[in-house]
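Shipment paperwork, digital attachment
Item: protein structure file
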Amino acid sequence: WLESAVEPRVRANTFRSYKWQLKKYVRGEIGSYRLCDISPLQIQKLYSKLNREGLSSRVVRYTHTILSNAFGQAVKWRMLASNPCSGAELPRSRQKEVQVLTVAEVARFVEVLSGARHDALLLVALTTGMRPSEYLALQWNDIDFDGARIQVSRSLDWRRKGEWEFSEPKTEQSRRSIPIPGEVLDRIQHHRRVQAEDRLKAGPDWSDHGLVFCDRKGDPLDRQNLLRRHLRPLLKKAGISSGLTLYSLRHSCATLMLTAGIHPKVVSERLGHSSITITLDIYSHVMPTMQVEATEKIGRVVFGD
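Attachment content:
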């Protein structure tokens, strides 16, 4: 199933994730059974065991998605009469509240960015809400300097240490054009001049992949290095929790837009979510504040100032 049905149609990272999930949580429990001998009860026992071991509801639900997909394919291939995952009781989904920068923290963070090695990259992350895999895959022809926009056309996937590839964006909605503030465009232009100097210093050792954000030899940046060597020291310098991640900048962008009163549909499109429902689910912590503001506004409309 993995080789025939999954690998040809999903991104490399997704394929590796499926493969690891099955090895880690599934094969040790039901891997020795014949396909036709796997019952709904065995599937339920597997999920219950994962739950008892303290794994999150997200892990159990993800495992269910993979297994249900696999057994569903077996039904299509007429290897099974029915899907043993159908009707399984799953743990209630608990949305983990995302970590974000406050407005005051954003101001301090932007202040310490001045002159930092990857200031342009981090500002793009904060103001566009792009996924790390998206802005690390940006090429110079994706930047419209006249129109002050960024075109998201691809994603960067690391297969293993030192090996990477470009892949399709996560969803169809992930292909998008994002307008950027003039201040960010200025930082990108300055970054381009710095990169030109790096290219001259590297000489024949320069790897020309056309990347906007790369190391001193033109190769893609490693996300973990970017987090440990650049983002966390800057957060510490700004007096901000070092527990934030690159994804926290994406979440911060979304939260700031929602609290500023920008319509969730606009936020969803900027983030490249496949539906507005995903946006509202992830950023539900912002909703109470928005409800208070909405109440004040409707009060002014009905009863006057």
